[in-house]
Specification:
- The protein has 472 residues and is of the alpha/beta class.
- The strands form four sheets. The chain has a six-stranded parallel sheet with strand order 2-1-3-4-5-6, with helices on both faces. Strands 14-15-16-18-17 form a five-stranded mixed barrel. Strands 8-7-9-10 form a four-stranded mixed sheet, with helices on both faces.
- The protein is globular.
- It has 16 helices and 18 strands.
- Helix 10 links the parallel strand 9 and strand 10.
Length: 472
């Protein structure tokens, strides 16, 4: 990046003509030199999306306005994901496209790709500012400096033991009825296929008092459900002597009627944690617990640190405590060394566990990970064929799960009205529920009602509420 200047002559002239406002973007806006608009694009997981929203809120605090078209932006933030090499390719393609469409904008590339591969990121000509995953609060300052000097810069430093949790501002209101709060970052697992510990550092947790404060603020804004998210969420609080149950309790005490958890690893769900969650009436019994493989040999090669028997025992405890829970998972096909017999074991285990839904993905080689150098790499055609077979089983299990809900009465948080025919929301287990709009002459959005499930169509449950008892 050294010496590279983006083609922004007229833009640079406008900034340099107002030297008194060089380090204050609010002053630049007030003096009328140019509108400070920022466009943000996110790649990757829900945590990335929460962080992108937090970066937007941070910039708004510094006088920026978020815009929806990159061509209108004075600055562009691209928050990267680097879970797979193919994801890198999509992100880099988007970066080049943004540079072509907005040649005068200052482009900030941040996120996991930058942190995990800083040298590769530094070689990119289309990014003006590079920011890793631990220094995003510096983005407003870096933008201000770049806009007055047009000198590319970076803020990427390695993670160290004892690093604190980075608390970005709570994101702007997106009009959703469900709030999202990031409470954990980093991972200590070092699975053989995963680059994330290098991109995110070690496990770090948000202070419980801060969680309570943020939850109170979100509840006051009218949200009735909150989703707690993290990179390895199940290990929340381990460095503070806390558990994920403490965070759930804090959100319930803030007034949330529903508290939901993001993706979980099996090892954090101890008997004590599960018992406490079951005692909390606000907790939504939806468990997304990563499995990755139903074959012990492959789990060991992946460095997953549990066996199929241990995983099955965990699900047994969960289902005993939460009879109406949903258990979903992630499964990878074609990990190096996976034979047809290994995959058959996975199919049998999936059938036994009766997951309500499965996120299926094919193993993708990720340079920098142990698995990338493993022998017996599986052909792409075999990965796809196995994913297709697993998908067929997943569809069967999902249909069985939905059918098992017929006759049950579940509480539904209504979130939107798709059309004039149905009101639509989610049950505590995150199943989509629809009710006819006939006889309901008001909006149900952000309201919770009991619904008796009467049928299934596609991936949705259909039911009825007694409108006479609710005064609707």
């Amino acid at each position: 990046m050294t010496g590279y200047k983006t083609p922004a002559d007229s833009y640079k002239t406008a900034i340099l003509s107002n030297k008194s406002a060089i380090f204050d973007c609010g002053s630049i806006r007030r003096n009328g030199v140019l509108p400070m608009k920022v466009f943000l694009q996110n790649f990757g997981c829900k945590v990335n999306a929460i962080e992108t929203d937090g970066i937007a809120a941070l910039l708004v605090q510094h006088g920026w306005t978020v815009c929806t078209k990159p061509q209108e932006a004075d600055a562009i933030i691209l928050n990267s994901c680097t879970v797979t090499a193919s994801g890198d390719h999509r992100m880099l393609t988007a970066l080049r496209k943004l540079r072509r469409s907005s040649p005068h904008a200052a482009i900030v590339l941040t996120g996991c790709y930058v942190q995990a591969f800083p040298q590769d990121a530094a070689a990119l000509r289309d990014a003006d500012i590079l920011v890793g995953t631990k220094e995003r609060t510096k983005i407003p300052m870096l933008l201000e400096e770049f806009l007055q000097s047009r000198t590319p810069c970076k803020a990427v430093s390695p993670y160290e033991k004892g690093d604190a949790f980075e608390a970005l501002p709570q994101g702007t209101d997106t009009g959703h009825t469900r709030a999202f709060l990031k409470i954990q970052d980093g991972c200590n697992r070092f699975c053989a296929y995963c680059i994330i510990p290098y991109a995110r550092g070690r496990c770090r947790s948000r202070e419980l008092a801060d969680i309570a404060a943020q939850a109170n603020a979100l509840a006051e804004r009218g949200y009735r459900e909150i989703v707690l998210c993290g990179i390895n969420l199940a290990c929340y609080g381990q460095e503070q002597g806390l558990t994920i149950a403490d965070a759930v309790d804090a959100c319930a005490m803030a007034g949330f009627e529903r508290v939901r958890l993001g993706s979980l690893e099996p090892d954090g769900l101890t008997n004590e944690v599960l018992t406490r969650l079951a005692a909390n009436s606000a907790f939504c019994p939806q468990f997304h617990i990563s499995l990755q493989s139903g074959c012990d040999k492959i789990l060991r090669a992946m460095h997953r640190h549990y066996s199929c028997a241990e995983y099955a025992a965990l699900l047994g405890r969960i289902r005993a405590l939460f009879p109406l829970c949903a258990v979903t998972t992630d499964i990878m096909t074609g990990f190096p060394g996976e034979t047809e017999e290994d995959f058959a074991q996975t199919l049998a285990f999936v059938q036994e566990m009766k997951f309500s839904k499965i996120h299926i993905f094919r193993y993708s080689r990720r340079p920098g990970t142990l698995a990338d150098g493993m022998p017996d790499q599986v052909a792409e055609s075999v990965k796809k064929e196995r994913a297709d077979r697993l998908s067929a089983l997943e569809q069967k299990l999902h249909e069985e799960f939905l059918q098992s809900r017929i006759g049950q009465t579940v509480s539904v948080l209504f979130e939107r009205e798709k059309d004039e025919d149905f009101h639509i929301g989610h049950a505590p287990d995150y199943t989509i529920v629809c009710i006819p709009s006939d006889g309901v002459g008001v909006s149900l959005r952000n309201r919770i009602f009991p619904v008796k499930i009467t049928g299934v169509q596609g991936d949705r449950l259909y039911g009825e509420i007694d409108v006479s008892e609710k005064g609707l």
